[in-house]
Amino acid sequence: MNINDLIIFQSVAEHSSFTKAAAASNTVQSNVTARIKFLESEFNTTLFERTPKKINLTESGIELLKTTKEILLLIEKAKKSISNVDQELKGLIKIGCIHTTAALRLPGILAGFNEKFPEVDFKLKTGTTAMLVTDVLAHKLDGAFVAGQVDDLNLSVTPIVTEQLGVVTSSLIDSIESLFEGKKPIKIIVFSDGCSYRRQFESYLKAYTNKKLTVIEHDTLEGILNATEAGAGITLLPQELIHKHYRYKDLRVFPLPKGMSEVTTYFIKRNDIMVSEAYQTFFEMMVGGYKFY
Fold first, then answer.
1. Distance (Å, whole) CA 78 – CA 183
2. Helix/strand/coil (H/E/C) assignment for every residue in 114-139
3. Beta partners for residue 48, in sequence order
């Protein structure tokens, strides 16, 4: 076993694909497959659960991914220490983010950080809160911005900003009350199950109407907004997002009742991982009161 075997393993784990890992590692898929089989033989365990559509890390795979990241970090720290040369902060930070925060907050966060540390690279992944929590726990992401409280003893959960949510409709809707009239079901346009905004939206509607809810799922923010603008249904999003970035669309935003409109965005990370200097600096700036968001 050598370091390159672990690098290939990490690539497969993070891409959940032998094909994508081969492309990212500038090698052929057969070599990637051979190296993973070698590691599984070396550790006498199965590292990935393989299905026709995707692969997932096993518990052993998650543990090896954690160890792999620690080994690679130690090597980088040793290189820096042995070279004995002051270097500009560098490294790759892998961050997850819910779609709305990626559109509304993340550009400012990254711009503020990269102005001070231009040599740091970021790899970003968007998804629902549930998806991102899973990836952070599996060591696929260094951390993630999620919405709503997350309760897991393996995670550090830090509040970042509180959003004011509003019901977003087409410009043809005059009031929220008009949606509750008639016999037709209310159509909500949301991300897949696991989205915190979706859960809060469903709770709000069930509290204020007995009408049936039907769901239209989209996997992009633009898809949700376009469908809402066309009158296909209604959605729930941060009010500031619409007012700041989508005023050109034919949309209306109706505030939720007091006590139901606030949702906090948190940054989550594992408690038990070794982190790079770049990542530690990013985290300390973000949670230390530095207002670059």
1. 68
2. HHHCCCEEEEEEECCHHHHHHHHHCC
3. 57
Q: What is the mean pLDDT of the chain?
A: 88
CA 203, 238, 145: angle at the middle one, nearest 5? 90
Report the CATH number at residue 216.
3.40.190.10
Q: Would you put residue 44 in left (φ > 0), alpha (ψ -120 to 50) or beta? A: left
Sign of CA dihedral 4, 9, 12, 15: negative
Q: pLDDT tens across 212-235, in order?
A: 889 999 989 999 999 999 999 999
Please give the biggest Cα pair distance in the chain.
Answer: 74
- How many domains does the chain fold into? 2
Distance CA 233, CA 224 (A): 9
Q: Would 94 be classed as within a structural domain?
A: no
Q: Are strands 91-97 and 143-147 parallel, antiparallel or unpaired?
A: parallel
Q: pTM for this one?
A: 0.84
Question: CA-to-CA distance for 279 and 259, rounded, in angstroms?
Answer: 35
The residue to which tokens 């102005």 are assigned: 115
Location of structure tokens 């992401």:
141
State the DSSP H helix or E strand holding residue 190, giving kind and residue range, or none if neither. strand 186-190
Q: What would the pLDDT profile of 77-122 be if each residue is shown by its tens digit?
A: 887 777 766 677 888 899 999 999 999 988 888 888 888 899 899 9
Please give the Cα distance from 272 to 194 (Å, whole number).
25
